[in-house]
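Reopening: structure tokens for the magnesium ion complex, inputs below.
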Amino acid sequence: MEDINKSVNDAVEHFRKLLLSQIERENNMENAGAPKDFKNMETITIGVCGGDGIGPIITREAMRVMDELLKDEIASGRVVVKNIEGLTIENRMEKNQAVPDDVMEEIKSCDVLLKGPTTTLKGGTLESANVALRKALDLYANVRPVSIPEEGIDWTFFRENTEGEYALGSSGISIPGKLNMDFKVTTESGTRRIARAAFEFAKNNGKTNVAIVTKANILKKTDGRFSEICHEVALDYPGINVDDYYIDIMTANLVNPAIRSSFEVFILPNLYGDIITDEAAQLQGGVGTAGSSNTGDRYAMFEAIHGSAPRKMERGEGEYANPSSIIRALEMLLRHIAFTDKADRLSKALDICLESEKKVVMTGHADGATAAEFTDYLIDTIKSI
Ligand code: IPM
Ligand code: MG
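Re-run output (same inputs, fresh job):
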């Protein structure tokens, strides 16, 4: 009993610190500066991190595409590409840091980042590199587009990216032999800014349906308030229909052909967004096909939606990994830094190579093309349009 009392007292003290740290985070959000204006920047620095597993392979291919599309800007010095080493699981474990300090410093010297998938350990205390970067760079909007043109599906998911279940996922409480507890955090400013980003996107892209997806019937404080804030923000966007859905039924709706094409924009807390965007990407053709942007007001990071695929590496099939997800992320990066024409060209070439023409087909295995063969085809297609 004495042990338990001590554990409870320690946990209460731990919880007090967590509360204060989260309040401080919320205060900082309120005082965020204005977003960068890429159109008028003299130089734009793009950092590239290969990551783990298939990461260096698919990132290498995405860089070839980037070099092709930005060759004039790189030659003139308008764009600087920085290869950043050290965001590997080996280095992170050795330093016992989710993102080692020197790597973080390099990343912060860039404006935007193209990042390969990084391995996340189950359990332990080493935080996921993704999560650490999203937090450190305050990348609050995880935007994941999914489209299935033949079905009229054009979805854009706005996943809150810095809080929810992820804010304190590596800082839970254990009462040994008794129980374990993690926390979910929803802040006012954190919810307001993701809702604002989603409604602005809807307004600027002619979308009239926004779905707020929560489990507010069960998680009344966090999801309940998340939904309320989204509705408050919606008041500024009178032409847009707003509906609430619970995550369980929305998971079913996405596989219901009778209604799924009516959805357009989704706003979700972090964990539901994580789960449902994998489902959506799979419907589009696999998690290897969807790009993902993580944007904040100061920095932005673009990555594949999937992980580092260690099983594929163990089978010796790394070179057959599909690079289209990270190349879609590159398209989003180009759009973000205001190279809209180049992003459009890349998007068109990807559609030709992956949908209409399909001269080089990847299967993910040795019976299909390699990542490099597919990228050669893609680059030839870019050159031809
Ligand atoms: C994603 C990934 C990450 C997440 C992992 C790798 C930490 O699944 O970007 O969706 O859970 O957010
Ligand atoms: Mg995920």
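The mean pLDDT is 95. The domain at 35-139+296-385 is CATH 3.40.718.10 (Isopropylmalate Dehydrogenase). Marking as resolved unless the reporter disagrees.
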